[in-house]
Amino acid sequence: MTNRRPGPYFGQYGRRRPVTGGLEARSQRGSFGRTWWGREFVDIIEFVADKGRMSRGRSYARSGQVISLEIAGGTVTGEVQGSQLQPFVATVSIDRLDDSEVAELVALVRRQPGSLAMLAGGGVPEALGPLLLPAGASALNYDCTCPDDGWPCKHAAAVAYLTTERIDENPLEILTLRGVDLDMLIEGVGGDSSEAEVDDWFGDESSLPGLPDADFRAAIDDLDPLLLRKAIRSVSEDERAVDAAIRELKALYQHFR
């Protein structure tokens, strides 16, 4: 573990204390990560981590040992009940994007058709992965108030696995984790006047082109004359009435011209 905060020394490890109402993981067997973002995040946190501690972390996540979980810019913080009376506080940290990286993210969204609409709808395009996902396990940092100096300890691993499920549920959490505000991102993308005129969103001041001139052709001329006469004949007394009805229809179409 790194950046350890000073805390009490626990001389003896015991069995974990059961928790009522903990944040039990949906995934109860197999691998974590149902979506592309979740799977990518899991691959990164598992790449160089201690396999035994990660296995115990999955067990903690699935048994509801994590009491609380909060994702904020650069840090995920969770309270995890272990063997002691008080829960441990574990964190998973990743650097927030700096101004130049945010500008690069804005430029990438502009270049990807449909990306802005997808973000506004609650999704995150996979094309943004290289900028939003941590660049390997070395970009992650773990900390915990427990005495285990593993990287990560099982408590931090449990927090990381539940973070994966949060990202599965809401991919926009990856933006939150990297310190990117969605509204500011959308504003930054839409603020490029070279892409769109933002002062007149609804086109109230726009000039529309004139309608093309089209040759007049009465709809009656496009009808099958035999079918037309047959239809009119069904409500007419004789052929003279049929002829009169057709002349009236033609006069009406001329009037509406």
Model description:
This protein has two domains: 36-190, no CATH class; 219-255. 40% of the residues lie in helices and 10% in strands. The protein is built from ten helices and four strands. It has a four-stranded antiparallel sheet. Helix 3 (99-111) crosses helix 8 (182-190). The protein is elongated and about 105 Å long. Mean pLDDT is 83; it is low at 1-11 and 193-198.
Q: Indicate the multimeric state.
A: single chain
Q: How big is the Rg?
A: 33 Å
Helix content: 25-40%
Approximate strand percentage = 5-15%
Number of domains: 2
Mean pLDDT: 83
Distance between the termini: 83 Å
Pfam families: SWIM
Keywords: Metal-binding, Zinc, Zinc-finger
GO molecular function, one term: zinc ion binding
Organism: Rhodococcus wratislaviensis (Tsukamurella wratislaviensis)
